[in-house]
Amino acid sequence: MVLEPTAGAGFDADRLQRIDRHFARYVDEGLLPGWQIVLTRRGEVVHHSRYGHRDVEAGKPVEPDTLWRIFSMTKPVTSVAAMILFEEGAFDLTDPISRWLPEFAEPRVYVKGSAVNPVTEPATEPIRVWHLLTHTSGLTYGFHHAHPVDAIYRQAGFEWGTPPGMDLAAVSEAWARLPLVFQPGSEWNYSVSTDVLGRLVEAVSGKPLDEFFAERIFTPLGMTDTSFGTDDTDRLAALYVPEPGSRKAIRNEAFGRTGVGRPDCFSGGGGLVSTAADYHRFTQFLLRGGELDGVRLLSPRTVAHMASNHLPGDVDLEAYGRPLFAEMPFDGFGFGLGFSVLKDPVKAKTLSSPGEYAWGGAASTAFWVDPAEELTALFFTQLLPSSTHPIRQRLRQLVYQALVE
């Protein structure tokens, strides 16, 4: 699919060029290898640009069909998959996940102690489907380095990936044996919840997650380049990390092997490789309320429900979430069923609209959907972690300053 920009749609063409000038400096200063940006309004592409290299060392530029590891931008796809099954009556959002994943029948919760000798107690509330969708399950990530349970995850081999040879069923069973950080539903903590949600999709549908995605989402939406891993290593961008001190982008071959070939574990939380054109179609499907080109996967009511703040008491992440390193601020943002949800632009210090829903990936990719302005924005690069530069905040500023109608 070719993303050809059209003029107008309420944007000032000269102001749009500020976006490219700003992010070109990141590349010129060696802070990013290259990038691709797609901006749409009212279903029309109004800005599509690219700069720099998908592989600096090989001198390969970013192309329109460059493949990007989207990491946690996989999470909204998994959330859509779950809600497709929800719409078919396969489960209620309040159902305990142990009905399909018996390994979670008796979770235990960390109380005190070290990672070597934790003291735990039984969970007073079962992990429910909505807990997975909202990251309120009590699960965590090993890479947080913020809690003894994070260290327990790392000891078990879960930091930036999963141990070799373990499929999604095996890692779900392994996580179920580890303590929860808190009682389910009592706090927000970014976690492997969406990976477990992917395992739930497998258990409920009877299909491996890659097959469910292909049959129920990618093929219907025409997302021909999105998959768990790729053998097309020429189109796949290289992965970079910041050099300590200078923050210059340096190639990391170990992380770069992620996304190459078929993985052992279909990570619903971070395993997909995609293109700008494909993810553009996914965001248009969301913006149009669950339909694209005559194909409907979800009802408008379901998409609106997903894009609502589901944190108890309608609070924001600052009030309900655990403080973690992250590029996105917690002030003014709630969380829905698979996305962050903007509650208060003034508190969040952003020009975006109330009701915007969004997420990003560990390698500094990002997207948002603004229903009020019928606007979507996509940013792709390959620098890990995403907290290295304030890309998402800068992109919002530059997009909305160019919107004049």
From TrEMBL:
Name of the protein: Serine hydrolase
Residue span, Beta-lactamase-related domain: 19-398
InterPro entries membership: Beta-lactam-related (IPR001466), Beta-lactam/transpept-like (IPR012338), Diverse_Enzym_Activities (IPR050789)
Keyword Hydrolase: yes
SUPFAM superfamilies for this protein: beta-lactamase/transpeptidase-like (SSF56601)
Keyword Hydrolase attached: yes
Record-linked Pfam families: Beta-lactamase
Keywords, ordered alphabetically: Hydrolase
Molecular function in Gene Ontology: hydrolase activity
